[in-house]
């Protein structure tokens, strides 16, 4: 079909639309042109129709000025005097001026409002250096910001720059409400997509200290993380170390390939599963890990001590007066709690837990351990166990496989859930026999029918069919039912639960659960540590790797006598004889006291402490 030729009117309209699309400047230009035409026309009419009035106003120059004043300030007509034709012409100028000025005010107002909105969204480039960049938005962001604020409390000019697909004022208000005063740390929020290179350029990545990529709270969050890592990798120029959280372990390989060698990946699923399993067997593991990871107490450092070259790791445990040795970093990597007779090389570094690096000082000498207080080591007798898992979610199968590696053959795990996927993916278990039962964990009668008293351990999982807040509410209901059943029936079993929101911990404490794993908080703390200390990535990797030594709170009566004062140096020696490294203790009487819940890490080695049954020694040990 032949295309009709455009008419002159259509071409003019098309040209006009294109000029109008150029924005506020084009609109002002058109108004200026219309104003000029109006002034010229009014002046010409005045010169033609009222020549006497034109002469009275000094001819063309005066008439042009008079027309301009009437166009810009319509109120001047009130002071005019002259013939009727002259007054009519000036009235026309004033009416035209009202029309033009009104449009001009509207255009300027709209343009100014648009500029203000653009500034509020935060689209200017961040002009900083040595700042921490956070890409994305999730619940973990509040934990990361809070911890970095603590870490930078003594530093001036520290900056955290956040880029997320949210409105800038909304981000600032949310952080202010959840984090509170940020002290000397400034927050700079920018609106944009972390997957867009142009938006990444706003963050001045080449001068940043570290970059943290968050897993967003949306469908398929790992795809977003991987795309962000690809965008970072493809940017021209260098960028600092990148720390990223991956929600699903199956996406770790793709994320590692996308990020390249400069990225440190955190496997959220894997760490949460390990914490739940360890906490179910030794109450308090998650609390200890959070205490190790936050900036409230001690921090981990790598320290080289040439004077220790040629000595054993066991001897190095008495090296510092105000710090605790956790392991070694040598040519082969980091090893936490190596064998006591491991010889320290000249290039080896000690992994040290201390309040501050300025407080790491060599000890002048330590008092010997009190042999009278040390309890002889006894090998525990392995026994089959019965564990009940209430609920099901995407990481439940992984939890069961990890649990299978800890228990002795013949142990039983009963899964009670109304989740449609309960029991899937459990082939090739070596030690566990798994049974799946239909049960609503919030129903008291359904729970009583399970005969919970026959189990040694109960694990309550968050149901991923519900939103995090609703899932936490259901978990709280289950915990309350279990605790009431224990009080009513006089039963005793450990209860470990999984929750999403750290704010619900205080509510869950009413249920007196033995341990509450807040996976988002733990991951947030780990990301904050790596953002501040990327060189410790290998240390934390070992800490959460079941292939080596792990954190265990173990009964204090297995190490030293209770009821009499004993120095922590004696506990260190008792643990060393078991091939373990003691790093602190937990007081049972203070388990309900936040923020440390009775955990004391890196205690004074010489200060005597009287322990009671129920207290724990926190050690690094192989399971």
Secondary structure: number of strands? 22
CATH topology type of the largest domain: Rossmann fold
Shape: elongated
CATH architecture identity of the largest domain = 3-Layer(aba) Sandwich
- How much of the sequence is in beta strands? 15-25%
Average pLDDT score: 84
Helix content: 25-40%
Structural class, judged by helices and strands? alpha/beta
- Give a quick account of the main beta sheet: strands, pairing sense, barrel closure: 6 strands, parallel
Task: Tell me the CATH superfamily of the largest domain.
Answer: NAD(P)-binding Rossmann-like Domain
Number of helical segments with 4 or more residues:
20
Question: Low-confidence parts, pLDDT < 50 over ≥5 residues?
Answer: none
Provide the domain count: 5
Q: What is the first-to-last residue Cα distance?
A: 81 Å
Radius of gyration: 36 Å
Which CATH class of the largest domain applies here? Alpha Beta
Question: Which strand order do you get reading across the main beta sheet?
Answer: 3-2-1-4-5-6
Folded structure, characterized:
By secondary structure, the chain is α/β, with parallel strands linked by helices. The protein has 20 helices and 22 strands. The chain folds into 5 domains: 8-121, Helix Hairpins (Orthogonal Bundle); 132-261, NAD(P)-binding Rossmann-like Domain (Rossmann fold); 299-354, Regulator of K+ conductance, C-terminal domain (Alpha-Beta Plaits), CATH 3.30.70.1450; 386-519, 3-Layer(aba) Sandwich (Rossmann fold), CATH 3.40.50; 549-623, no CATH class. It has a 6-stranded parallel β-sheet, sandwiched between helices. Strands 13-12-11-14-15-16 form a 6-stranded parallel β-sheet. Helix 2 (24-49) runs antiparallel to helix 5 (84-121), helix 9 (221-234) packs parallel to helix 10 (252-259) and helix 11 (268-281) crosses helix 14. The longest helix is centred in the first third of the chain and has 38 residues, at 84-121. It is elongated. The mean pLDDT is 84.
């Amino acid at each position: 079909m032949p295309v009709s030729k455009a008419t002159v009117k259509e071409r003019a309209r098309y040209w006009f639309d294109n000029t109008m699309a150029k924005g506020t400047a084009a609109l002002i230009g058109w108004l200026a042109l219309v104003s000029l035409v109006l002034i010229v026309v009014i002046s010409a009419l005045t010169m033609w129709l009222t020549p006497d009035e034109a002469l009275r106003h000094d001819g063309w120059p005066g008439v042009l000025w008079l027309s301009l004043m009437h166009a810009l300030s319509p109120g001047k007509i009130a002071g005019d005097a002259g013939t009727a034709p002259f007054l009519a012409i000036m009235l026309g100028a004033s009416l035209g001026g009202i029309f033009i000025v009104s449009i001009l005010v509207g255009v300027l107002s709209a343009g100014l409002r648009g500029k203000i909105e653009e500034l509020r969204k935060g689209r200017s480039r961040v002009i900083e250096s040595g700042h921490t960049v956070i890409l994305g938005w999730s619940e973990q962001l509040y934990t990361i910001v809070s911890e970095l604020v603590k870490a930078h409390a003594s530093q001036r000019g520290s900056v955290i720059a956040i880029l997320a697909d949210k409105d800038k004022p909304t981000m600032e208000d949310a952080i202010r409400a959840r984090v509170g005063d940020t002290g000397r740390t400034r927050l700079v929020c920018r609106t944009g997509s972390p997957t867009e290179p142009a938006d990444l350029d706003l963050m001045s990545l080449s001068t940043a200290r570290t970059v943290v990529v968050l897993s967003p709270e949306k469908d398929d969050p790992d795809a977003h993380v991987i795309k962000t890592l690809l965008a970072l990798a493809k940017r021209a120029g260098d960028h600092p170390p990148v720390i990223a959280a991956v929600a699903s372990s199956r996406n770790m390989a793709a994320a590692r390939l996308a990020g390249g060698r400069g990225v440190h990946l955190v496997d959220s699923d894997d760490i949460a599963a390990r914490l739940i399993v360890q906490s179910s067997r030794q109450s308090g593991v998650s609390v200890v890990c959070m205490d190790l990871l936050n900036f409230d107490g001690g921090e981990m450092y790598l320290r080289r001590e040439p004077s220790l070259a040629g000595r054993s790791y066991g001897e190095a445990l008495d090296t510092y007066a105000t710090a605790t040795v956790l392991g070694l970093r040598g040519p082969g990597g980091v090893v936490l709690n190596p064998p006591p007779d491991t010889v320290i090389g000249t290039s080896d570094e000690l992994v040290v837990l201390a309040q501050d690096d300025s407080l790491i000082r060599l000890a002048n000498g330590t008092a010997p351990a009190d042999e009278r207080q040390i309890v002889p080591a006894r090998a525990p007798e392995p026994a089959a166990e019965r564990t009940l898992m209430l609920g099901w979610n995407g990481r439940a199968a992984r939890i069961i496989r990890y649990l299978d590696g800890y228990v002795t053959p013949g142990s039983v795990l009963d899964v009670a859930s109304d989740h449609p996927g309960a029991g899937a993916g459990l082939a090739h278990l070596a030690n566990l026999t798994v049974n799946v039962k239909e049960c609503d964990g919030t129903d008291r009668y359904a729970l009583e029918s399970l005969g919970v008293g026959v189990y040694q351990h109960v694990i309550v999982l968050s149901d991923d069919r519900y939103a995090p807040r609703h899932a936490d509410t259901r978990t709280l209901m289950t915990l309350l039912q279990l605790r009431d059943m224990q009080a009513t029936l006089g039963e005793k079993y450990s209860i470990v639960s999984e929750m999403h929101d750290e704010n619900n911990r205080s509510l869950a404490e009413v249920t007196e659960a033995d341990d509450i794993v807040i996976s988002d908080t733990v991951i947030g703390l780990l990301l904050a540590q790596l953002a501040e200390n990327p060189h410790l990535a290998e240390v934390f990797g070992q800490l959460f790797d079941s292939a080596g030594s792990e954190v265990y709170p173990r009964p204090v009566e297995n190490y030293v006598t209770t009821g009499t004062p004993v120095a922590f140096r004696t506990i260190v020696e008792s643990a060393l004889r078991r091939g373990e490294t003691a790093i602190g203790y937990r007081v049972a009487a203070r388990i309900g006291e936040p923020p440390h819940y009775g955990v004391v890490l890196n205690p004074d080695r010489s200060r005597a402490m009287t322990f009671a049954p129920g207290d724990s020694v926190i050690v690094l040990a192989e399971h």
